[in-house]
C-alpha cells in the first residue's frame, strides 16, 4: 500500500462570485477533523460504561499566505456581521475529496516587517460532509 504525501493535497473554496477558487498554491497547511459527541447510556449495576453516538461535527483548518485572491475571499468577513456559508472542497489525494457547505468560524491575519503576511481560518461544516472521488 502506497503512503500518501501532502504534495497531493488541495483546497478550493467559493470566491466572491460563488465560483470555486483553487487555493492549493496559497495554502501551506490544511487539516480536517471529525468529532462525534458520545452520549453515555450506562445503566445501574453495569461494570463498564456504554455509549451511543450523538451529533457529529466536522471542521477544516487552513493556513496560508495572504495575497489578493485569499484576501478577496476572507478579508470581507472581518467586517461582515452576517454569517454566510461557503462551498469548500478538501482534497486528501487524487481520488479522495471531502466537500460541503461551511461557515468561516474564525479568521486571522498576521505578519511582521521581516515576513510574509499569513492567514489562518477555521471552517465549520453545516449539514452533510460528502466523501467522494469526483471533484465539484
Structure report:
The longest helix is centred in the middle third of the chain and has 7 residues, at 68-74. This protein has helices at residues 68-74, 76-79, and strands at 10-14, 20-22, 27-40, 51-65, 85-93, 96-110, 118-125, 130-132. The relative contact order is 0.23. The chain is mainly beta. The two termini are 27 Å apart. It contains two helices and eight strands, in the order E-E-E-E-H-H-E-E-E-E. The mean pLDDT is 90.
Produce a short descriptive summary.
The chain is mainly beta and 136 residues long. The protein is built from 2 helices and 8 strands; from the N terminus they run ββββααββββ. Strand 5 (85-93) and strand 6 (96-110) form a beta hairpin.
Structural class by helix and strand composition: mainly beta
> In sequence order, what are the helices and strands, one letter per element?
EEEEHHEEEE
* Distance, first to last CA: 27 Å
Which parts are unreliable, with pLDDT below 50 for 5 consecutive residues or more? none
The overall pLDDT average reads 90
The general outline is globular
Largest sheet: 8 strands, antiparallel
Work out the radius of gyration.
18 Å
How much beta, percentage-wise? over 45%
How many individual helices?
A: 2
Helicity level, as a percent range? under 10%
Please count the beta strands (DSSP E, at least 2 residues each). Answer: 8
Amino acid at each position: 500500500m502506497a503512503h500518501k504525501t501532502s504534495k497531493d493535497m488541495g483546497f478550493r473554496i467559493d470566491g466572491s462570485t460563488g465560483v470555486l477558487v483553487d487555493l492549493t498554491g496559497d495554502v501551506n497547511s490544511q487539516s480536517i477533523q471529525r468529532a462525534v459527541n458520545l452520549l453515555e447510556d450506562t445503566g445501574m449495576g453495569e461494570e463498564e460504561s456504554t455509549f451511543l453516538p450523538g451529533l457529529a461535527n466536522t471542521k477544516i483548518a487552513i493556513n496560508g499566505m495572504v495575497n489578493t485572491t485569499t484576501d478577496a475571499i476572507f478579508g470581507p468577513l472581518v467586517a461582515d456581521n452576517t454569517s454566510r456559508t461557503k462551498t469548500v472542497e478538501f482534497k486528501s489525494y487524487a481520488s479522495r475529496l471531502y466537500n460541503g457547505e461551511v461557515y468561516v468560524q474564525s479568521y486571522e491575519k498576521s505578519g511582521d516587517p521581516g515576513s510574509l503576511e499569513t492567514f489562518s481560518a477555521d471552517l465549520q461544516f453545516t449539514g452533510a460532509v460528502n466523501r467522494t472521488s469526483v471533484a465539484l
